[in-house]
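Input record (one chain):
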Amino acid sequence: MTVLLDRGCNTNTAHSAPVLRERGQREVFCGLTGIVWLHRKMQDAFFLIVGSRTCAHLMQSAAGVMIFAEPRFATAIIEERDLAGLADANDELDKTVQRLLARRPDIKLLFLVGSCPSEVIKLDLSRAAQRLSKNYSPKVRILNYSGSGIETTFTQGEDACLASLVPELPSDDSSNPSLLVVGALADVVEDQFRRLFEQLGVGPVRFFPSGSADNLPAVGPNTHMLLAQPFLSETARLLEERGAKRLSAPFPLGVEGTRAWLKAAASAWRVSDTKFESVIEMPRARAEKALERYRNTLSGKSIFFFPDSQLEIPLARFLSRELKMSLTEVGTPYLHKDHLEQELAMLPQDIQLSEGQDVDKQLDRCRAERPDLSVCGLGLANPLEAEGLTTKWAIELVFTPIQGFEQAGDLAELFARPLRRRMRLAV
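The corresponding structure, as predicted from the sequence alone:
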């Protein structure tokens, strides 16, 4: 089913082209994949997937886990006897959690992560988390969220995880303003942003998620919230219910996006334009210099985005405005009109936006366009490459630090690399 709908954004948004809304077969990773970056960020948390052997194989493959590694995630396998009702799944889960916590006493935050199999058999992990919390609190906090791929894309795993943490955040009743940066960022990126905010006089600044369960950020009516990722709609909604005020801004990708993102916080703290420009002058100059070397490779090249990570619209803005790439179609799994309002306003008027997916129809449109580069999931990349189309894995854009001034060149490199590879192979 394909429907053309108006975008429905506020009237002051410049972009007015209709959105092609599709509801058909999709090709995406499930939300379990978010554990790959979350378990690295949250140092004393553990993610226990309640699922099948397929879930376990997916996670081990996605994370590149060696057999001798000791990651902070695992899978409680649902066996045939669980499915047949020959064993009490809740009793089995309790025993698994007991063995896990005895083996890993460093765990302070345990997530029970639902999967397609656990949802199909109606295993109530919310109730299980409440029951287990009574046994292990206050030493271990036990929460749950769903990483099932039945209705979600892979970045929504982070949204669901952080949303489950929001009720656990302490209250901030201070009359002084604070800034909460929401979304998992690589440590190097977080440190860079922290230094810039400190130089601007913006703060105190807290990051969510934090690296420790004992250091969860407080939230209250004087909390200003700045989203670092565009796929955190439920987390943002729950934080707003706790009193946080969202600062509207583009996302910190490229020079333009990073500057506008920082400017939103600076304006809320009434930092003068002179001081703001002085603080960002050097990192912005380095970023612009880093981008310059990629313009010859990318300028004028056409690019097609399949819906995958929800990063597509900010990435399209960056590539179009800063590297002069030509956008053919920009697809995204979900289009959150309020969070993307400023991004949409900066896109060219004539591009095709699509929300959702009917993969066969989108493949036909991509083949008809024959773009220089297609950004897609792993499942589509090899078939498209076999047809002579150059592809970029969308998942790499989530696993790689790409936010901020210092990473602008690295972000451009991710798109230039497959084009250079294609040129070398053509010789």
